Amino acid sequence: MIDLRFYWALLIRRLPIMLALFIICAAFGVVSAIRAPSTYTTSARLLVENPQILQQETNSRDDTTAQGLDVIEQQLLTRANLIDIANKLNVFAAYPGMTVDERLQWMRSSTSIRRTSGANQATLMTVSFTSPNPRIAASVVNEFTTLILSANTRNRVDVAEERLQFFQQEVDRLSADLDQQNARILEFKQSNSQSLPENLTYNQNRQSLLQERISRLESELSSLQTQRQDMVRLFEETGNIRQTAQPQTVEEQQLAQLRAELSGVLSVYAEDSPRVTSLRNRIAAAERQLQAQTAGAAGGAGSETTILDVSLSQIDTRMTALQSELDQANAELETVQSAVSATATNSITLGALERDQANIQARYNAAVADLSQARTVERIESSSQGQRISVLEAAGVPNQPSGPNRKKIAAMGVGVGLGLAGAFFVLMEILNNAIRRPAELRSRFQITPLAVIPYIETRQERRHRRSVMLALIAAVIVLIPLGLATLHTQYMPLDVLTQKVVTRLGLG
Q1: How high does pLDDT run on average in the chain?
Q2: Do 421 and 21 contact (CB within 8 A), yes or no?
Q3: Cα separation of 223 and 334, whole Å?
């Protein structure tokens, strides 16, 4: 159970000090509330207008707007900017002793920038400033407004120009890469012109024709060799190069073979191709030669030996021509086969080069599109047709002060005094270890006393104690206000002292 009489006695005993703490804090609070200079707050309202020519999707535009306003706000509240405004408008003309850091902190704490926006709502910006001088407050807000408008235009144009420059550099770089890739592809095709994928069908057809031609030439060459051997053997046995069962001569057989070859070639080549023209010329020469031989044989000129030599010479000439043609066909076949074999590898390499070219081309096309858009955006921003900030309501000179809240300051001083007095009472009770009541004797020593004899004051001691208490109370009531008044007038005003203490403690 709480002993109210005991604590009342303690309260009366400590009342002078508690009263002194309360009076000091209350005096500081009341004096600060009375002497605190009036402050004036004014504001300007700005509207963030949507672009007159829409450039992007709504969500992206909203994000860009928020980022742009954040950048402008941070630029506005930089140290150099605030100090320049303060010096330009003589904001601290009445406080020449303030340091640069104190001025910067005061400017930032006195400036307020608020933005309001929402779905299907316009974005508004409110710029406020608080100052003891109403004209200075209005001037600072108007200066802030001018800086915001110029910064918005400058930032958006700078961003558009930097974006245009970046995409221009990107287009130039990708164009150079595309030219280099095209040069690589051209060089590869020139160095592998016979074994490119687009020539594969032609090479395969040419390979089949050469194989057929080689087979025919080998057969014809073998036939001529057999014919020569038979002619020589027949002449050695009979002395004649003709047989009754074989009326045709070599020229006649050769002419028949040429005509058969021409018939086969005409099924593949055109009438005016070099191959057909060559065969027709050879057929005409063979016909003239056969006619000459026929005329010589009819006149009876020459002998069998001469005819044998001429026939063998003609066969040898024909065999030599066929062998040369066969060698050329084999060499061309090897070249075609090598080209067909290398086509697969070249196809893979060329595909990789063309794939890289397609990737570069796609990036180049995208960069060109972005460059075109960047040019459009730059023109829009330069002509002020994009997003912009306009002034809805400029800052005016306020007629009524906006602060300070004097009642609140005085109440805070009284509250702090009561808090300190209560804290002093509790602290003294915690630090006091003396035994003053029977209950403390029981709780500390775990014993129950049979009887407790209190200290009995005499009448004179009681009178003395009351006199001292009244003197202390009178001293507190009289001396402390006098001391505060002396401090206020002789040393430093209490409101200034209070502000310095609060600032030193980091509370304001």
Answers
A1: 80
A2: yes
A3: 25
Q: List the one residue out of 332, 221, 208, 219 whose CA is nearest residue 268.
A: 208
Closest CA to 82 of 155, 147, 152: 147
> What's the Cα-to-Cα distance from 321 to each of 133, 226, 341, rounded to whole Å?
118, 16, 30
**Per-residue pLDDT tens digits for 391-412:** 888 888 888 888 778 788 888 8
User: Each residue of 457-482: pLDDT tens digit?
Assistant: 788 877 887 787 778 777 767 777 77
Radius of gyration, alpha carbons of the chain: 59
Asked whether the predicted pLDDT for residue 177 surpasses 70, the reply is: yes
Q: What six digits make up the tokens of 328?
A: 């050329």
Concatenated DSSP letters for 372-434?
HHHHHHHHHHHTT-S-EEEEEE-----SS--B--HHHHHHHHHHHHHHHHHHHHHHHHHH---
Structural contact between residues 204 and 340, judged by C-beta atoms closer than 8 angstroms: yes
The rounded distance, in Å, linking the Cα atoms of 466 and 443 is: 32
Question: Going by C-beta distance under 8 Å and a sequence separation of 6 or more, which residues neighbour residue 132?
Answer: 37, 38, 39, 40, 94
- Please calculate the CA angle 103-106-110 and round it to the nearest 5 degrees: 140
Residues paired with residue 388 on neighbouring β-strands, in sequence order: 49
pLDDT over threshold 50, residue 450: yes
**Residue 320, both tokens:** 């030599």
pLDDT at 29: 78
Find, among 199, 174, 177, the residue nearest to 189 by Cα.
199
Q: Could you tell me if 319 and 221 are in contact, meaning their C-beta atoms sit under 8 angstroms apart?
A: yes
pTM over 0.85: no
